[in-house]
Amino acid sequence: MKRSVLVLTVLASLALLMSLTFGAATVRAQFARGLGTVAGTVLDAHGKPVGEASVTIQTSDGLKPHATHTDSSGHYEFARFDAGQYDLRAYSKGQFSDWSKHIVIRPKKTTELTLRMPPESTEKVDVTSNP
């Protein structure tokens, strides 16, 4: 009885050790040190490029914000960023796109990401004053 408990304990320990070892290797491979790039296009609700849109990138924990603008073709690029997870969104004509969350930048690679703007609001507001 004691021997079977000992064998089960050893096997469970080995299984835990292997999962931690291989899990850590996967995380290290995904977030290896180095610099990478994220680039893409900002599109309007109709799929047309949005020139001069502002694009913001920040780490997924909300730190290190940076911004750039799209060119006339709606293209943007953030080059030489530390490998890791980032959040991005665009701003144009008073509206923000949704955040694209946990975008992975890998060393020596370019991650492509299209950001889509919401439809322009056609809501009209009447303002009147009371004397």
What's the layout of helices and strands?
Layout: H1 2-30, E1 35-43, E2 54-59, E3 66-69, E4 75-82, E5 84-92, E6 95-96, E7 100-105, E8 110-116
Task: Give a written overview of the molecule.
- The structure is a single chain.
- With 131 residues, the chain is of the alpha+beta class.
- It has a domain at 31-116: Immunoglobulin-like (Sandwich).
- Helices cover 22% and strands 39% of the residues.
- It is built from one helix and eight strands; from the N terminus they run αββββββββ.
- It has one helix spanning 2-30; strands spanning 35-43, 54-59, 66-69, 75-82, 84-92, 95-96, 100-105, 110-116.
- The strands form two sheets. Strands 2, 3, 5, 6 and 7 form a five-stranded antiparallel beta sheet that branches. It has a three-stranded mixed beta sheet with strand order 4-1-8, with no helix packed on it.
- A hairpin with a 6-residue loop joins strand 2 and strand 3 (66-69).
- The radius of gyration is 24 Å and the shape is extended.
- The termini are far apart.
- The mean pLDDT is 84.
Summary tags:
131 residues; alpha+beta; Immunoglobulin-like; 1 helix; 39% strand
Write a short abstract of this structure.
This protein is an alpha+beta fold and 131 residues long. 22% of the residues lie in helices and 39% in strands.
